[in-house]
């Protein structure tokens, strides 16, 4: 029995991870802390049954006092740090919150975990930690920057982030690494490719295109639509994190991906065809500044060293995802009835956007 502190558990991947853990390890305790930003939604967890092993606390990872209080109240074994500002387009408009949450918030989590986990917290030379504790930082392949037509990211590829989002995630990775090197903190970092699946906020490519198709709205494709992403079904990301949490060697970085490279245009056309709409909805729009051309993950380390394998092919995963959105139109309606429409109209018009106006 473990107690896992999940941050950002009301978001897309965090909520899927909580569901995954309760299915796989029903005796584990999960404390989910989330600030419930525009991307956090407790509806994502409404199917988690009333369970004494599940606790939700509304908290901001930047709030040192609150995080300290949580660590002092519970005997936490592991932290899985999902909490982040996660959308590249928003980071282009309003970078600052990406730095405060993704970098400083991570540092608050590390500092507090170190204080409660280190056996001699007052000794700056002590590298002795309680048994079995681990801090798992959920990072992204975007920290490596963009690839040309050939090659794949391996764990030793240099970090060359191009957007404020990816730069903030790379900075967080560096601070996590520094806590390992300087303080001996037991950590892992995972760097996963683009996820898709149920409960993804409809500002990201796949749910945005599904939602727009359902509403017969234009499908905005940035630039020439030939950018390539390496897609992974969210369930497989969760199972990979579970493998790293239980089997990952301390201090190691693990790339996560399923070898599913697709152009954006191929994805959009597939969604249009599956939902039975007209290709005439597809519209080319102005490209995203600093748009990374291609991502591709070499997953040899996690597959050979930890025995992880993705279970879903892209064809299965996308079918499940579209089916889920078609069966959960109310979930999307509840989001769209909030500030989402305001966000959408401003983000996809060519006016100057201040994200504070659309939160
Ligand atoms: P998301 O935006 O859907 O969820 C983020 C969650 O974090 C939300 O519930 C939000 O309320 C919460 N949050 C934001 N700021 C917070 C703060 N200051 N304190 C506490 N909670 C806060 O994001 P996601 O797609 O689920 O991504 C989760 C993590 O996985 C992120 O760290 C992201 O960088 C990483 N990641 C995402 C992908 C992807 O394709 N979505 C791929 C690789 C890695
Ligand atoms: P996104 O889902 O925002 O993920 P990321 O930028 O983290 O990879 O975008 C995936 C790809 O889809 C990316 O190349 C940008 C492109 N895209 C569009 O063409 N149109 C859109 O409306 C969105 C949101 C993304």
Automatic annotation (TrEMBL):
Question: What are this entry's molecular-function GO terms?
Answer: dTDP-glucose 4,6-dehydratase activity
**Enzyme Commission number, as recorded:** 4.2.1.46
Q: Which UniProt keywords apply?
A: Lyase, NAD
Stretches assigned to the NAD(P)-binding domain: 5-321
Report the catalytic activity: dTDP-alpha-D-glucose = dTDP-4-dehydro-6-deoxy-alpha-D-glucose + H2O
Alphabetical list of CDD domains matching this protein: dTDP_GD_SDR_e (cd05246)
Judged by the first EC level, this protein's enzyme class is: lyase
Cofactor(s) of this protein = NAD(+)
Keyword presence, Repeat: no
The protein depicted here goes by the name dTDP-glucose 4,6-dehydratase
What organism is this sequence from?
Clostridium kluyveri
